[in-house]
Queue: 4 jobs
Job 1
Amino acid sequence: MAGPDHGLDQTTTIKISTNATQYFIESYYAALNIRQEPLSSFYITPCAMSGGKSLPSISFNGEQIRNATVLQARFEDQIPAASYEVKCYDCHVVNPNYVAEGTEGWPAKTEKNMTILVAVSGCVKFGNIEEAKQRGFSETFLLVPNPVAAANKQRSKDVKEWLIQTQNFRIVV
């Protein structure tokens, strides 16, 4: 069964979103654990929506974070080293007809014309990993296609194919 207007059958859409989610989770949480790759590389370029709301929208334990650069500084300056362990995740295509900025006019059948909702839960230890108390976390992302990757026919390890537009992180008590 083809999804609305995007021409991809349901099996293909599920495969694309599942593969994108798995790769995103593996690389994002590795970056959080190792802290060698800048977090800002996982986010869309900051912009303002027509109503004045800024994107990306980042919520960290209920606090709105202005952008990925501020989040990066928070991790470097205020949050001790951490070990994140993803226990489970799920994903769903939210908008199968999304048109990323810079990709207008591309064929509707492209696999990059979708947004993906990702729900993650797991455990995290802050500070001395050997002695730290394990805490649960829940995190939700809305991933959008990276227009730079979509425009680049040759895949590059340095260019992320999917970027965070919206994120909500919570420590589970």
Job 2
Amino acid sequence: MAPLAGGNIRRGAEIQAAVLHSCNDARIVSQVLDSFQRPTKVISQYPRLITLPGPNEIQITIRAVGLGSLGIEPYLKGDTRVSEPSTLGHQATGVVTCVGDGVEGFQIGDAVAIEAGVPCRVCAKCREGRYDVCRDPKLRGSMKSYPAFRGAFQASINHPAASCHKLPAKISLEIGSLLEPLAVAIHAKEEAHLEPTDSILIIGASTIGLSCAAVCIASGSKDVMIADNLKNRIGFAVDHGFAKDGMTMLPCGGTALRDQLPFARRMAERATQLKREPSGFNVVFECTGTEVNAQAAIYAAREGGEVIFVGNNHHKKRLPNRLVAMLGTFGQASGYEAAIDLITCSERLPDLRKLITHRHHGLASVLPAVQMAAKTKDEKGSVVLKVVIILDPNKGTRWRHRMSTLSLG
């Protein structure tokens, strides 16, 4: 086992973490860093000692964490699964500080992106390469399992090396925090049968929706339209090359099916008229998870077209019956390496740096960062998309440079 780098995180040292106790209650505490395979209950009022990484693990000092919905809702709305103090955060990058036994391909000082979802790698789906539908997955920063696996809102973590990805020099630690939504978008695009001439509608101009648009454009699509109920996000998408056209969606007046279906049909007709696609779009990506938008997506697709529900949030939705192919995706499978290749090699990819609209510094800023990420615009009226928390950005000349240089080549 390689020694801990620089002696700054030694065996027996404590680490800092932002721990969620209840809605809007995130405390900075010292806690143990357990091996991923050996989770223990977090008791935050008692300091804990860091452990060395287990076999096939690496220890990573966290440097940047992007905020997604998985890390926002429990802080702001509470969560029935908060049965113990929990550490969230799953879109993370960092620097390798220790290498466990049996690990090859990593060394101290490597910049890495952390794939929060860890598949079992032994079930039938994993053996097929479809670990997005693994039968026994683990997810850092999620409270779907008990005890919860701690997320990246802490100084360091031990993580399976097989679920870590080295960042090339062209990808900064900040941009690396966008690999997770980009990998999700790549997985969604691969499930569709896109042709360069296909007309594409993307419903939802969040980071996931914009990532889907970016992946389609990078794949050669020239006819991408994006729809959202927020004008500033539509303007952002069109102004920065994430879509050719945009449409502002109106709020639906009711939740009854008799109200939703006619409204969804009108929204779909409006989109097809704006794009002069009377028969509908070839492919529709639905990225919001709302019932009425799912209905609109189905109406907006042409007969024989495809509707991709990104995030697979529609298993309990009331949907119209049309002759379209409908497919849900959840997470991603082998998308990180594809995302890294896309950023480093694609000449068509829109500038992903624009997606990071707000930066916060330090674990003490977790709650303000979460509150910002829940907004659609800041106090200056600027659009809010991806919020990134930077941990200790000034520690070490090399990493200060990597944090400040957002080179995409």
Job 3
Amino acid sequence: MGEWAQCRSRKASSSHGWSAYGGQVLGAYYPQQDPSGSSSGSAVAVSIGLAFGSIATETSGSIVNPAERGNVVGIKPTLGLTSRDMVIPISVRQDTVGPIGRTVKDAAYMLSAIAGKDTFDNWTSTQPFDVVPDYVKACDFLGLKGARVGVPRNGIDYYLDSSTNPVMVAFEQALQTVRDAGARVIEEANFSSFDAPSFARNSSIVLDTDFVGGLANYLASLSTNPNNIHSLSDLTHFTKADPREEHPDRDTYVWDRQLGRNLTSSSLESFMAYQANLRMGGKEGVIGALDRHKLDALIMPTFASFHLPAIAGLPIVTVPLGFYPAQTPLTMNLKKTMVSVAPNIPFGLAFVGRGWSEEKLISLAYAFEQRTMIRRKMKPYIRPTFELSDQLEPTEETPYKLKVQYRPPVNDSPRFGQLVIQKTIGRLFLVRSWMWSILGFQQSLL
């Protein structure tokens, strides 16, 4: 995962998927590919077959963006569907934990296993059900039949540039696939207000004020703290002094800004920014468009899909849509260290919905996936040679060796898959360490 979920440096000073602990993660579809982020490793591990699924976190795009660049499926759940207990927080008002999988069904198995109420995260108490839905049952080949999906063109057009042309060609083809599957596509299902500079400015205030207090609370909950770091100020000093952090080449611009605000998450300015974003993302944004046109979901290219759901706490499912064509010119990231756009790099299609509508979104995404099988049309240029069973023996730092031996599936039922995942996640929770990869025991259920 990108260090501090990319919440440390200005974009031109950092790179997706880099951390002082793990180094630089690279995407698998082009040499020196930018994996996107911040849940970079979660997506790449799945994309090259190290795991059938992984756990990721999203504040704004950090599940769906790396999922699309890895040619895999990502589910960004409704805020409150999954617990964030002991996840290092960026914003308690935006952070969510969700699965990345090779297929929609793989991701659905995982979501069924990790969703639910948790007394250590009171946001989960807002769930409108006591029993978590079986999201695997939502995987319906006929899921698009009779559905109404809308295209919010003004929320897409804002982000268009020359690099998105191939994506939009594939997007228009996808809309026809959706129509052919029996759905009605409502064009110009626009947001009544789409002021990107305003909601970006508000999000900056919300995230900055949430992170300062949230980080202090997280650090106070640790049983050990060997570097005696108790606040963002302490962390900034530590980072600037430790050569592994590559400062000042990778700056602390975001942290410096956060400390300079001298505001708390309970301040009036933070409250008003959050309320404005809820309105822009909800009634003036996603919810308003869904209600006005009586839609089941919005359909968008993934690159344009995540901004309003992030600020309004709404769900997204992204599935593979296509790949940049052979003659695509290379585009580098802002730091000029990785390739952001190039031939064969994948991009995705997103379904966006109301809060708690994951079953509907999974049904739509699965129906599209099954008709297109985009993931199978391009292979990573690199394949792993490392076997999970080759991991080093336990040490004081990693006392729990994770060893996986492949076994053919003995039961293909949803409940079996959920039990496998729950058992694996349970072992991780026992040591209260979120190791954001779930190691697979069964073949793809695609």
Job 4
Amino acid sequence: MAWSLIHAGWMHLLLAFLNAHDWTMRYVTTFSTEVFSLLNSIIYFHKAVQELQRAHDNLSFAAFLYAIIGAIGTMLVAIFLSTAEKWRPLFHRYVRMGLAEYAAAISIIIFIGMPRVGELASLDRTTLHVSTSVKPSHPDRTVFFVQFWHLPLAWIFAAIIAGFIITLLFFFDHEVSSIICTIDRYGTKKPGGFAWDIVLLGITTALCGILGIPPANGLLPQAPLHSESLMHSEKEEMLISVDGEEKVEHREVRRVYEQRWSAFLHASAILVFVSSPLQHVLGFTPTSVLAGLFMFMGEQSLSVNPILYRFFYLLTPASELPALPEDVQGYRGVHTYTFVQIVVTVVIFVVTLTKAAPAFPVLVIILVPIRLLLMNKLWHWETLRFVDAWACRKGTPEDDKDLLAGGVNEKDGLGPRMAHMTLQTAEGQA
């Protein structure tokens, strides 16, 4: 594993130095990013189920039933607190902001303490395994770093293949997550630092290999959950023209706080809890609470995915569906597009459960040429304009083809209208 991660490390650095984001992600559309986001949500829910399965195998029936209550309770309380911004006029706005931004942490603390009170304290439970001393957790290791230089040269070169697959996964995972967290809905103004992110990811991946620990790609600061917690309302001045006169209009807009503190505090908290005394505190955490956290993260990711709202359209009677633009020929193409996304996601997820799991990043990347070369022959272009767009730039692949053909479409550069439609639906339901 050490050499696989070391190779992945220098490959990340190479991608960053070559500014790979500009010449790779420019061809990625929201078709692929939505599938990847849905896949992550499913994996979160699956991890939660796995934790509860372990609880079922290791606990008494009564304790297992409480583990289910603890997992679902952790998720529901976190979801409830995450809506605190909408509780106006209840509480001061800073109290509401604190409840919303630390919803998951508050819920976790509540359900760590609850099973230690009253009759629940007599139930058996499984908790997180933590180290009680500053030494390698593996009994055969006496030092923290792996003696990777003892591996035969042939195996060192063979590890390049595994390193390449890890690089594909981490690069695409990180890039897509960063894109999802900086979509127009979040109103970001500062440019993205994709290359610097990949440099840091490459260094930490190589260090994980040298230390002999599983690689962590650090997606928490780039998760939609993080962006949602930083959303706030602010007044914005806009110039409008009324009867030929320009007037200043004040509008309330929602956008994220663009700062460095939250990501820094995430990293600092991880370093602090590596220390032995606080690792002991982590050891109080029931694994059922971890399952609840996984479900909450899956729900938060799923709730902002346009696939979810298009899936709701599949279940909606035709008479109740929103009106489509005139140039889109009915909902059949939209429904088929959504169904294909769901089927593709399920197929990739099934692959992750097999021995071919390491190859699943390749399947995700293959979706990019499939979208650009095949799907425009199976769907009407106006339907694809409606549901899809470039992930990192304005417009759609169909707009670019119109321009190459000499025809300029009046909707060039506007992006996917379906995305606006689903987000408006989401905000209305919220």
